Amino acid sequence: MQGVRSVQAAIFTMEGLVDKEGLAQAAVNPLMAYFFEEPTNRQVFDAILNTVLASSDVTAFEGTEKLLTFLTSGFAVIAVDGVSRMIAVGAQGYAFRGVTEPESEVVQRGAREGFTEPLRVNMSLIRRRLKSPDLVFEQVTVGEKSRTQLMLCYLRSAASPKLVRQLRQRLAACDLETVLAAGYLSEYLEDPHTSRLFSGVGISERPDTVCGKLTEGRVAIIVDGTPAVMLVPHLFVEEFQGVDDYSNRTYYAAFIRTLKYLSFLVSVFLPAIYTALAQFHPEYFPTWILIKTAKSLSETPLPVTLEVLVITFVYEIMKEAGLRIPKSLGHAVSIVGALVIGESAVTAGIISSSTLMVVATAAICSYVTSPLYPPITMLRFLLILVGGVFGLWGLVLATALVLISMCSKTSLGVPYLSSLSPFSLRTMRDVFIRASWKKLGKHTIRVQRFAETEEIG
Amino acid sequence: MKQEVPFSSKRFLLTLTLCACAVILLQNHDLSRALSFPLALGAVAAGLIVCFLLFLPAVWLKKRWDSDVLTLVQSRGRAAQGMVAVIYSAYFLYVAAYFLLPYTDMFCKKYYTETNPCPVAFLLLACCVYAASKGANVITRFGIFLFVLAMVTNFMMFGGSLSSLDMHNGSLGWQGNPADFGNHVIYFVTPCFIAALFACLSGDATRFRVHQIVTALGLTGVKYALVLFFLTFAAGEYAARQAYETFVLSRVAHFGDYAGVESLYMALATMSVFMIISLLLCGVTKAWHCGGNLWVLALLTGLVFALQLWAVSNDAIRELFTRPLLLIALTLITAAVIPLLVGWGERRRHA
Lengths: 457, 351
Known about the structure:
The complex is a heterodimer. Chain A is α+β, with helices and mostly antiparallel strands. Chain A contains 14 helices and twelve strands.
């Protein structure tokens, strides 16, 4: 507590959240240097607020709740004796990770910048790319205990006001005590009564991707303390679009897209089709494959369904181990997995080489569309089981059910399979192929055009 | 009650086209030898013209009031509403069993020879409950994927049979007796059940144009004509020796060492029947205003399953579900007579 002439005033900060040097420059030094002539406490307060402080991030406020919010957000708070209002001065200075390339979305061409943990840094990364006055950042606080700050980010001219309103309502309905990561909120943003197998909320760690989505009318939700930014509405076809597609030549981008769709299908269906054919319809294999497969399968003790399930399960364990163990041990796991378990098991006649090849191909393909990895894994297990019990017919029925479930899914009122079903020829220019920029640049297709209801249209 | 989301009329009619094309997938009717090819084409055209005529009353309701028969009848009192709901429910359940029976029969004869048809029917119906609970809009979205599968299968079927084409296999004259022609026409009127579906569900369809119906029936006609053409001139006697002669793909599949390709046909037939029954269940739930209720849907499919069991165990009942004439007569009532009566009643009310 220090007196300014005869007026008592105080500066409050949270240890470790404030940059002391910045605070000295913005508040302490100017306060010490200023000669206060104002006769009343109120006038001293106004002078500090309007004249003295050398910071652009200055806000006057009132109330204990806001005081705590500002303090825990790294602000310094100046209180003047006899004045109920207080002044918050931006002087955040906690340690944080720098802006680095995100590991989950590596690109060949394009920016090497990714989001980081502090909210303000992430906002600046978006603002630097979209200098439009239409860009809106709207602050929301969630979590009774964590008081986590979120920013709804959208382009006023592109995003539907109804969509933004709906989003605000859903976030307001979030009754979590703590929100420590973006993933905590994604369930609250999903439409009620729709399938949860696929996610209706997109995640990106790249500011350029987020800016691209904002121009299409989507809303980004930046969560303080998380480098992953959520994007809604999110569509299935977006899982197959990458930043590199827009930098590469159009024919190559189309080739890569096709490859991704095929990889998705292979990763989901290949083990199941193999199981169904080997178990129920071996006559459907062309003769040259049939002979080799039959020979390979006859030398193993397990029925083919169980064999495929076991190998897939072991693969998932190895994948999980590879993710969790220290990087220095990663090579050891690879060697154990590939050589000891894989080759030895085939040599010992425990598993067949054809089954191993099928599961390995499916596993590699599943990494081509890595955001879809969770649903792909679940579907793979389910379909192997169905294919093994009911054969191809069961597989067809299960596929029909999965398709129905996907067709019924919506993301904030927009059908999840939009562009494909409901089909839109106009938007096909950026689904299986990527049209040239001359065509893409003519009209930006807003996501709300897909909405079939009046909910967000 | 779950409110149905309006859907595109184009997508709805595409779905109905796929339902109509499914009729020929489940074919166990002597198509290729009874009539010469041009005469068989004439039968297709005649059949589809009758189908188009059956669409007209529902088109009138749609154009005049932008509604369907089940929605319009709501204003006619609870008794009328209940009576119409009973008629349409009975009809839709009959049609569901009508398609389920040949499907399970084909399934057990062609693919899983040692399987009992009842568990097959049961599982298929259980899946239909889930689909119907999602509503007609979702089923029409599913129809787009089925359309892609149909295109791939047809391409394989007809593309693979091109090499076997021999114009000496069939006749290009006008041979055939009138009784056979009549039978063929009756057979090709079978897809008219889609007119009844249209009459019930078109109220939720947006941007409807009459030419969409013409296109839908035209596409069905093209599919039928192609099947007839390849049956006559490519499969020939091979088709005649099979239980299900429209398996034109099987000749290519077996002789070309690609038997697995035939599973596409099974997939298309299964998904088509799945879609037809799901749409029919949607029609019933709409008639009773209980859209998406799983218990009601389970009860309805239980009834369809009971009909299936009854037909399997009783040949007289089976006859009822395999004769197209009864289906056409019932369709005439549901697709034409009732919509006309409701339409006239509505016009008098507004006069």
